[in-house]
């Protein structure tokens, strides 16, 4: 870099900014330095630079699937979140190192952190890995988790107020005159537990006691099969709160196969507001969580932690989006 700086007649820091694309620099100077670098066969050794700076230039994004081992990265929620995270990290000059984890031992997260492959870690979902996250969070600061919040958690979280979201769904169904209610979701996940709690707490006591809790998995295949079995057994709620949009759309499809009209005979409310919810038939009423804003907050917090700043968790407000399914 010093040789190239002498050839170009600029400082070493100018050469660095020109070749990395970071920092402010006159565009003509940037182009001239890059042209000289090409002419003399100079290539920036990013690995050596990162080693000198004590950084990797990458952020790990981990998806632990302890409670939903059949879930895939093609899941619309994951796809949307990963896309937004990749954009946010790229804009800050970081690479994304993604890993879908099927936890089979208690030290999987600790091993990843100790590997030194990334400068920080973003975990998408707590799954049933609460103890693992807490153990690592007590000693590793550069970790932010998308999921349910908690005052006593030793790590930062970004997530939607799931209790408030559940309450929005309950009030909406009550306003629609629905009284035979059911909640569909996998209550092994903290976020779903919070959604269920908010839903039940917002109901009158007599309806709270009669509301059915239906355990159901997140994949389209398993949630559709479980909903079909539920309706085949003769169950006929007139209002359903699904813990995710995928579950909600599966319930609508299964209901159609069993002659249950949505929304005439049964109102369905989902959670997430993924793109597919907007174009479903009928379009799905849902509790929206702002995935793009969530990704931005996750990246902000992990980079602030890397910089040594003292920051706090972030809680996003849910919004009810009314569509044709209710």
Automatic annotation (TrEMBL):
<dbReference type="InterPro" id="IPR046335">
    <property type="entry name" value="LacI/GalR-like_sensor"/>
</dbReference>
<keyword id="KW-0805">Transcription regulation</keyword>
<dbReference type="InterPro" id="IPR000843">
    <property type="entry name" value="HTH_LacI"/>
</dbReference>
<keyword id="KW-0804">Transcription</keyword>
<dbReference type="GO" id="GO:0000976">
    <property type="term" value="F:transcription cis-regulatory region binding"/>
</dbReference>
<dbReference type="InterPro" id="IPR028082">
    <property type="entry name" value="Peripla_BP_I"/>
</dbReference>
<dbReference type="Pfam" id="PF13377">
    <property type="entry name" value="Peripla_BP_3"/>
</dbReference>
<dbReference type="InterPro" id="IPR010982">
    <property type="entry name" value="Lambda_DNA-bd_dom_sf"/>
</dbReference>
<feature type="domain" description="HTH lacI-type">
    <location>
        <begin position="1"/>
        <end position="53"/>
    </location>
</feature>
<dbReference type="GO" id="GO:0003700">
    <property type="term" value="F:DNA-binding transcription factor activity"/>
</dbReference>
<keyword id="KW-0238">DNA-binding</keyword>
<protein>
    <submittedName>
        <fullName>LacI family transcriptional regulator</fullName>
    </submittedName>
</protein>
<dbReference type="Pfam" id="PF00356">
    <property type="entry name" value="LacI"/>
</dbReference>
